Amino acid sequence: MSILCGLPILECVYCLGCARWLWQKCLYTAGHESENWGLATAEEFEPVPRLCRLILSVYEDDLRYPLWAPPGGYGINPDWVIVKRTYEETGGCATPYMIYLDHDNVEIVLAIRGLNLAKESDYAVLLDNKLGQTKFDGGYVHNGLLKAAKWIFDAECELLRDLVEMNPDYRLTFAGHSLGAGIVSLIAMYAVQNREKLGTIERNRIRCFAMAPARCVSLNLAVRYADVINSVVLQDDFLPRTTTALEDVYKSIFCLPCLLCLMCLKDTCTLEEKMLKDPRRLYAPGRLYHIVERKPFRIGRFPPVVRTAVPVDRRFEHIVLSCNATSDHTIIWLERESQRAVDLMLEKDRIMEIPAQQRMRRQESLAREHSEEYEAALRRAIALDIPQASYSPSYGTFAEVEEGESSGSSSGAGSLLSFKRMRERWDNFIERLFDVDESGRMVFKKSST
Questions:
Q1: Is residue 316 part of a domain?
Q2: How distant is the alpha carbon of residue 348 from its chain centre?
Q3: Which single residue of 64, 164, 166, 335 could bond 52 by disulfide (Cβ 3.0 to 4.6 Å)?
Q4: Which domain of life does this protein belong to (predicted)?
């Protein structure tokens, strides 16, 4: 009899778990994770659509006669393509890639395409991983992606070194999408650890843009390499939000039957504090840029807004079961929406008519803000007891975090947000002082004069 009396209580607990699952899977959208992040600027986000087009060009067999070019073309010069590798040349060890010497933007780019659903070798790379299987620089990384990254780095190391030495003022940029994004993230980390193999190149000349990346690094590495790696996520993209094993990806996307599965409820209801303290759990790498263009219970797309931060907690933990979860992952949509976002940012800057000198000062202040955000993220990680999140002098990016500075968890998060709010306060200050006349030029308000 006592067992029967306890059944209603168990049913209530189960229903509450199902309701929380529904919230996190179906309604946890509209940029909920990034609602407190700061806004990105045109200067820092401008390379994203350009690199997306460069990644798209890797799919072409002949760049002089492209078949799948986006509106406006790829914007590249075929004569500047140094090398272009196919599946036959990589032998299935990695996806096809291209090395491009971009003289217009003063950078050497290694671009890697994403997963090919028709190639078993790509599945083999993605599935080659177990929790805690591979350690790297005091953290954990995806085993299959690291092997692919090392293969590409070893194969092209001499060529990259020659290009770096012949172009001492050029940046070395790694760019990739989906599976390729995970590979280039680990190539960038591996290159930073082996800079002597690339000649005389400083850490600040190496950068990586991972478009819709797979979760490939532990949390301490994701934060510590945020000055090198930039991850771009479009709205509800499923891959940065779920585990990298392919069968888990599909289980997470098509898991309506899991309403009756206690395992799914267990994973969904696991406390985030417990997940953060698991040193083997993998995350999207580096600084995050989240493109938000839809709102809950609204129809259609809105002008895209790009938010950015170096978050520690709330780092795309829960997958979203929306009708756009898979379409947001495609490189085509990512290129279109990132270009729209850049155009809106540039239009806003044009209306405000920011002088060139002031623009340079804004770039310098942006670099300082990013550096301060890294320090705040490290303080936050130490306050949350993230394993192996302590300062390492070999990175040369973060100021040393003393114990007294990391006593409260809220102080790190507050300082993380304050730096971005400074930029918003400046925009508000300009709006209070100036008006836009009929010709589109800015003039002082009468009340201010």
A1: yes
A2: 24
A3: 335
A4: Eukaryota
Phi, psi values for residue 282, rounded to 5°: -100, 150
CA angle in degrees (0–180, nearest 5) for 257-259-262: 110
Is residue 406 a part of any domain in this protein?
no
CATH of the domain at 130: 3.40.50.1820
DSSP codes joined into one string, 333-348 = HHHHHHHHHHHHHHHH
Cα gap 306→289, rounded to integer Å = 6
Which pLDDT score is estimated for 246? 45
Using the 8-state DSSP alphabet, how is residue 198 labeled?
G
Buried b (16+ CB within 10 A) or exposed e, 312-349: bbbbbbbbbbbebbeebbbbebbbbbbbbbbeebeeee
What mean pLDDT is reported for the chain? 78
| The pair of three-digit structure tokens given for residue 89, joined into one six-digit string | 């040349």
Q: Give the domain range for residue 215.
A: 31-387
Instruction: Average the pLDDT over 182-188 and give the result.
Output: 97
Instruction: Give 306: exposed, middle or buried? Use CB within 10 Å, 0-12, 13-18, 19+.
Output: buried
Q: Which residue in 374, 388, 393 sits closest to 132, CA to CA?
A: 388
Residue 74 lies in a domain: yes
Tell me the one-letter amino acid at 289: Y
Q: Looking at 400-439, which runs of residues are DSSP E strands?
A: 434-436
CA distance 279 to 197: 30
What is the rounded CA–CA span in Å between residue 238 and residue 328?
A: 8
Number of domains in the chain: 1
Q: Which two tokens stand for residue 361?
A: 């000062």
Tell me if 418 is assigned to some domain. no
Angle between helices 120-127 and 179-193 (to 10 degrees): 60
Q: Where are the alpha helices (DSSP H) in 325-391?
A: 331-352, 356-383
> Within 13 Å of residue 33, how many CA atoms lie on the same side as its CB?
28
39, 306 contact by CB (below 8 A): yes
Question: Which of these, 106, 187, 101, 84, lies nearest to 141 by C-alpha position?
Answer: 187
CA distance 346 to 428: 17
Sheet holding 171-177, edge to edge: 38-39, 305-309, 287-292, 229-234, 206-211, 171-177, 107-112, 97-102, 81-85
Segment (H or E) for 188: helix 179-193
346 with 353: CB under 8 angstroms?
no
Residue 386 is given by DSSP the state -
Q: Would you list the DSSP string of 174-185?
A: EEEETHHHHHHH
